[in-house]
Every structure is written in C-alpha cells, then in structure tokens.
C-alpha cells in the first residue's frame, strides 16, 4: 500500500507540473499584426497573360485588391 501511495503521489505531482508548464507557455501569445501586406489570387483577366502591359497588370491587381478591401496599398 505504501508503494502504491508513493506512485500515485509521484504521478499526480508530475501531472500538476506538466499542466502548469503548458498553462504558462500558452499565456505568452502576442497579438498578431492584421495589416494585409500581400494577397494571392487565381482570378485572371480572361485573356490569359495579356493584361495590357505593366499598366494593365497594375490596374488588374489594384481592382482585385480593392475587391477584398486592400485597395490603395
């Protein structure tokens, strides 16, 4: 009975220590910056890679960004 009690105390002690360590580690979560810096899309222009040069490509990308609330970036 003495050995069984000692085993239970040891297991309980290690369980409590493990739970405390997990709890302390999860409390240090920092807020993430939610500012969008880029996005990826699969929406094409309908003409393959013909976007009308650099100006057309920029216009297409700006329109896509504006449609998801990330215009003027």
From TrEMBL:
This is Uncharacterized protein. It comes from marine metagenome.
């Amino acid at each position: 009975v003495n050995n069984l009690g000692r085993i239970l105390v040891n297991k309980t002690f290690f369980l409590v220590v493990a739970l405390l360590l997990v709890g302390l580690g999860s409390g240090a979560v920092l807020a993430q910056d939610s500012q969008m810096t880029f996005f990826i899309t699969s929406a094409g222009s309908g003409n393959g890679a013909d976007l009308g040069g650099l100006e057309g490509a920029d216009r297409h990308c700006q329109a896509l960004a504006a449609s998801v609330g990330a215009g003027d970036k």
